[in-house]
Design brief:
The complex is a heterodimer of chains A (about 375) and B (about 160). Chain A is an alpha+beta fold. Chain A has one domain: Cytochrome-c3 Hydrogenase, chain B (Orthogonal Bundle). In chain A, the strands form 3 sheets. A 3-stranded antiparallel beta sheet of chain A has the order 1-2-3. In chain A, strands 6-7-8 form a 3-stranded antiparallel beta sheet. The longest helix of chain A has 29 residues. In chain A, about 50% of the residues are buried. Chain B is of the alpha/beta class and about 160 residues long. Chain B has a domain of about 100 residues: NADH:ubiquinone oxidoreductase Nqo5 subunit (Beta Polymerase, domain 2, 2-Layer Sandwich), CATH 3.30.460. Chain B has a 5-stranded mixed beta sheet. A two-stranded parallel sheet of chain B has the order 6-7. Chain B is globular, with a radius of gyration of 16 Å. The interface between A and B is large, with 39 and 38 residues.
Chain lengths: ~375, ~160
């Protein structure tokens, strides 16, 4: 139990008077919609007192395309390419959540080969996403070298995707009932080469940025999010785990072949920006570990268990499936009315939409410069907020 | 999937919820434990679901709505999860389409504050007691609620 004691003067006086003898004026500042730390179009209205943040008002909606409305006019295969355009750094996991929910609803059993390739691809993408996040966090905090390193290495993972999938960003690869294409014969050797290349690089990232005194000063003890608050604010993924809650779908409700591999759920102790930083650094190592265990024993079998152009009709009902993307729990809610091959209602529980609002809780009281650290450590992808 | 995980089975979970709030009914055609709650009991039910230690649903995973235009009602869907017990529950609530107002659950789970704003923006559901009910994606002066089945817009290719 925690008791918070407030004072009447605190309630009645404007905050500027309450903690400072000087009379100051509060004012609003717009950050965005075009701001380098938004990584997209996200408008943040800050109520400032000097440089101290009093209130944060996020204004999303600049990339709202009505994906859920579009889904109501499309069959389940046509929905897959739309999901690429939500969280474009977790496109494969976005594909997977629709494929998984539809498979559960329609009773489609996939084989071990499909699930293993899905898991490998998703972990490679998680790795790619975290590598990019690391570089972008460095850039946001003024360390441009990190950005160059991360883009160099992100390309190398992207080339593996491009060779198998034919796309670098909008994958459209994981389909209900299987995969769009089988992997190429040299996929295994190339992934092994990539892992050999990346494993020492994560240590290099640590040496380059993590130990930097300026970075530590700007991340440690900044923007502390308590575990209990994180749950009630609907946070998931690395943001929740950094607050010390070991909730990782890959462990709690295993899907794919996550129950057959050995990996650790990384958690933080304090929930500050540094914990959110370090949880992701460790998750990169865990992703490499997962892929290493799977890549040698790829089971044989077909890469698609249904006909590609088979009509997928779901029985009447409400279905909800979820996967763990690089940013948290992505859920797909389908209500099928039983006739037609399009969903009557399709809704995506997006991890970024739910993580975004944590800033309104943790940012007040910090300075503008700290806000950069806080938002960067949440790793938001704006098109996934707006859908 | 969700219903099999956790310590309690689907039937057991539904029965416990109905014991707590006798006016709830079981929801058919759902892939997990699901109940229908009347609008009047929604607030007290949600508080019990969070606070009852056998249930302790501390995470509101998702909140959305379905427009059943033929039957003249909106169906509100709340997807709950308990990080302590690892079980899922779907709470649905039918509300009249002509006057869709329900009590807010943002006092129970703060994230509902923004999830309800999204449903308000796209479906036009009113949340009684909500402290900051504003549109979240669309402009403040936008006409209509796009995810309703009878929504039309001059720019739409196929009018509803």
């Amino acid at each position: 139990m925690s008791v918070t004691v407030r004072t009447l003067s605190e309630l009645l006086m404007p905050p500027s008077v309450a903690d400072s003898p000087l009379s100051t004026q509060e004012y609003f500042v717009n950050m965005g919609p075009q701001h380098p730390i938004a990584h997209g179009s996200l408008r943040i209205v800050l109520l400032l007192d000097g440089e101290t943040i009093r209130k944060v008002i996020p204004v999303p909606g600049y990339v709202h395309r009505g994906i859920e409305k579009m889904c109501e006019h499309m069959n389940y295969r046509k929905i897959i390419p739309l999901t690429d355009r939500m969280d474009y750094l977790s496109a494969l996991m976005n594909n997977w959540v629709v494929a998984r929910t539809v498979e559960m609803a329609a009773g489609i059993e996939t084989n071990a080969r499909i699930e293993t390739i899905r898991t490998i691809m998703s972990e490679l993408q998680r790795l790619q996403s975290h590598v990019l996040w690391w570089g972008v966090l460095g850039m946001d905090l003024g360390a441009f070298t990190a950005f160059l390193y991360s883009f160099r290495d992100r390309e190398i993972i992207g080339e593996i995707f491009e060779e198998t999938i034919g796309a670098r960003l909008t994958m459209n690869y994981i389909q209900p009932g299987g995969l769009m294409y089988d992997i190429l014969p040299d996929f295994v050797s190339k992934v092994k080469k990539l892992l050999g290349y990346l494993r020492p690089l994560i240590n290099e990232y640590d040496a380059l940025l993590s130990g930097n005194a300026i970075l530590q000063e700007r991340l440690r003890n900044i923007g502390i999010l308590d575990g209990k608050d994180a749950i009630s604010l609907g946070c998931t993924g690395p943001v929740l785990r950094a607050s010390g809650v070991p909730y990782d779908l890959r462990k709690v409700e295993p899907y794919g072949v996550y129950d057959k591999v050995d990996f650790d759920v990384v958690i933080g102790t304090k929930g500050d920006c540094w914990d959110r930083y370090y949880v992701r650094m460790e998750e990169m190592r865990q992703s490499i570990r997962i892929v290493e265990q799977l890549i040698d024993n790829l089971p044989a079998g077909p890469y698609m268990v249904t006909k590609y152009n088979a009509r997928l009709k779901l029985p009447k009902g409400r279905y909800y499936g979820q996967v763990e993307t690089a940013r948290g729990v992505l859920g797909a809610f389908i209500y099928s009315d039983g006739d037609g091959d399009a969903p009557y209602r399709m809704h995506f529980r997006s991890p970024n939409f739910n993580n975004l609002w944590a800033v309104t809780h943790i940012a007040p009281g910090w300075r503008i410069a700290d806000y950069i650290s806080i938002q960067s450590s949440l790793d938001l992808v704006i098109p996934d907020i707006d859908r | 999937m969700g219903s099999k995980i956790g310590t309690m089975g689907t039937e057991e979970l539904e029965q416990l919820v109905i014991t707590l709030e006798p006016r709830c009914r079981k929801r058919q055609s759902a892939d997990r434990a699901a109940v229908i709650a009347p609008v009047a009991e929604l607030d007290s039910l949600m508080r019990k679901l969070r606070d009852e230690h056998l249930l302790s649903f501390d995470l509101l995973l998702d909140h959305t709505a379905i427009d059943h235009i033929q039957e003249g009602r909106f169906e509100l869907v709340y997807l709950l999860y308990s990080t302590r017990h690892g079980h899922h529950l779907m709470v649905t609530c039918d509300v009249d389409r002509a006057n869709p107002v329900v009590p807010t659950v943002s006092e129970v789970w703060p994230i509902a504050h923004w999830q309800e704003r999204e449903v308000f923006d796209l479906f036009g559901i009113g949340y009684d007691g909500h402290l900051d009910l504003r549109r979240v994606f669309l402009e403040d002066d936008w006409k209509g609620y796009p995810l309703r089945k009878d929504y039309t817009d001059p720019d739409m290719l196929e009018p509803a």
